[in-house]
Specification:
It is a single chain. The protein is α+β, with helices and mostly antiparallel strands. The chain has two domains: 2-256, Aminohydrolase, N-terminal nucleophile (Ntn) domain (Glutamine Phosphoribosylpyrophosphate, subunit 1, domain 1); 276-465, 3-Layer(aba) Sandwich (Rossmann fold). 30% of the residues lie in helices and 24% in strands. The protein has 20 helices and 23 strands. Strands 4-3-5-2-11-10-12 form a seven-stranded antiparallel β-sheet. A six-stranded antiparallel β-sheet has the order 6-7-8-9-13-14. The chain has a four-stranded parallel β-sheet with strand order 17-20-21-23, with helices on both faces. A hairpin with a 2-residue loop joins strand 15 and strand 16 (275-276). Helix 9 crosses helix 10, helix 10 packs across helix 11 (307-317) and helix 10 packs across helix 19. The radius of gyration is 23 Å and the shape is globular.
Length: 493
């Protein structure tokens, strides 16, 4: 156990200024174009993972699988690839790994044979007891092929003594803890699961007679499916004989969705709790302006994450909004990874100052969050280098002081700037004229709540408060670990 934990504590460093969601999941039933629609769904969910993508289908007799490195559009864009995925049932997955190297074997969906037939599993999230479970499974003779905690779920399902596949899944779910959304395929059963607190998102849609499960509503929109509802926290839903069946095997808990789905992760056009994510983000900017009003000439967003909040700030303060920073949309994370010389240029590769717009201006620079502060420092310097008179930084979320263990790529606590410096020290570090964050209660007001319920918070907001809804069973000290690393990350199979 100590050896495993030691391996798990190894940190992987790269240019990653933003928090990253691990994955996007998609599933569809009873549709002759299942593979094509699944890849379209992955296109819509591409922002949730860019390192790998995969599809598993079932044709009535056999399962078929394709897994590829990179973007959906680069891999599932040819007819022969889609023809290799026959069947009316499909699940699909976009991957973003948070530690270690990317290997093909870690790309989902995963597949396993069980005594009740095959099962494919696509997982968004992270288990907080994966190491503990994995150690026990290995001691009992289990052989692991991947470095992902998703395989732990697959192993638990396969080793269950229950007779029916749904009962096997329930058996496995009662052993795991964390934040997760699962889409599974067991022959002609399409299955969706959301963790007891509803930390990770999962929605239900319908396209004629086909049911669709997806991480966000934008994946429904792209294929013309109608949004039905969210999968409820602690709910198992499955499609059998074209009917949607619901099970709730867990003890009842109040829902606590991840706050960062509202702040950053979800695509702006996705619906969260009845409203587009874009509207919440505008509201964050309005509340930020109410709390941190300042005399300025221009409101400038950090594109694209700060756009909506900056618009809200601008409208409330009646200060002109303008694109003082221009983003190069053709530079991706993969391009920045290979060499330190390139990584050091990361901000300049992605952003450049709009000189004529910012020159001699007092600027309010708005972004959605501040993690390590290295990017903010470079952006502020860039604005000053190109003629800005003053740069006042405004962050449309509270200070991130605590790491995540539910499927989000946050640094360790020692790397989180706000966990180790006062706001005054952070302001000095990024070299801004002033720095203000949205308050926790301001965040909740922007979302329609009077204030945060300190007894039972409405959201999973541990990033700011340290209030973790699910206990971390695996003792990793101060490390931030989201992937089991028992295999060499140099392997490419």
């Amino acid at each position: 156990m100590k050896k495993i934990t030691k391996i798990l504590k190894k940190k992987f460093k790269n240019f990653n200024p933003k928090l990253k969601e691990e994955c996007g999941v998609f599933g569809i039933s009873d549709n002759q174009d299942a593979s094509t629609l699944s890849t379209l769904g992955l296109h819509a969910l591409q922002h949730r993972g860019q390192e790998g993508c995969g599809v598993v289908t079932f044709d009535g007799k056999k399962y078929h699988s394709e897994k590829r490195f990179g973007l959906v559009g680069d891999n599932f864009n040819k007819e022969e690839v889609l023809k290799s995925l026959p069947g009316n049932f499909a699940i699909a997955h976009n991957r973003y790994s948070t530690t270690g190297g990317t290997t093909l074997r870690n790309i989902q969906p995963f597949y396993a044979d069980t005594n009740t037939g095959g099962i494919g599993v696509a997982h968004n999230g992270n288990l907080t007891n994966a190491i503990t479970l994995r150690k026990k499974l290995v001691e009992d003779g289990a052989i692991f092929y991947t470095t992902s905690d998703t395989e732990t779920i697959v192993q638990l399902i396969a080793r269950s003594k229950r007779g029916k596949v749904i009962d096997k899944i329930i058996d496995a779910l009662f052993q795991i803890q964390g934040g997760y959304a699962l889409v599974m395929l067991a022959r002609d059963l399409l299955i969706g699961v959301r963790d007891p607190f509803g930390i990770r998102p999962l929605v239900i849609g319908k396209l004629k007679d086909s049911y669709v499960f997806a991480s966000e509503t934008c994946a429904l929109d792209i294929i013309g499916a109608k949004y039905i509802r969210d999968v409820e926290n602690g709910e198992i839903v499955y499609v059998e004989n074209k009917k949607l069946i619901s099970l709730k095997p867990f003890p009842l808990k109040k829902i606590r969705p991840c706050v960062f789905e509202y702040i950053y992760f979800s695509r702006p056009d996705s619906i969260l709790n009845g409203k587009c994510a874009y509207e919440y983000r505008k509201n964050f900017g309005v509340e930020l302006a109410k709390e941190t009003s300042i005399d300025a000439d221009l409101v400038v967003p950090v594109p694209d994450s700060g756009n909506a909040a900056a618009i809200g700030y601008s409208q409330h303060e009646k200060i002109n909004f303008d694109l003082g920073l221009i983003r190069n949309h053709y530079v991706g994370r993969t391009f920045i990874e290979p060499a330190q010389k390139i990584r050091s240029l990361g901000v300049r590769l992605k952003l450049n100052a709009n000189k004529s717009t910012i020159k001699n201006k007092k600027i309010v620079l708005v972004d959605d969050s501040l993690v390590r502060g290295t990017t903010s420092h470079k952006i502020v310097k860039m604005l000053y280098d190109f003629g800005a008179k003053e740069v006042h930084v405004r962050i449309a979320s509270p200070e991130i002081r605590f790491p995540d263990f539910y499927g989000v790529d946050t640094p360790t606590k020692k790397e989180l700037l706000a966990a180790n410096k006062t706001n005054e020290e952070i302001c000095k570090y990024i070299d801004a004229k002033s720095l203000k964050f949205l308050s926790v209660d301001g965040l909740y007001r922007a979302m329609g709540y009077e204030k945060r319920n300190s007894t039972y918070p409405q959201l999973t907001d541990h990033y700011f408060t340290g209030d973790y809804p699910v206990k971390l069973i695996d003792d990793l000290g101060d490390s931030k670990v989201t992937q089991l690393s028992l295999l060499s990350t140099k392997s490419n199979n």
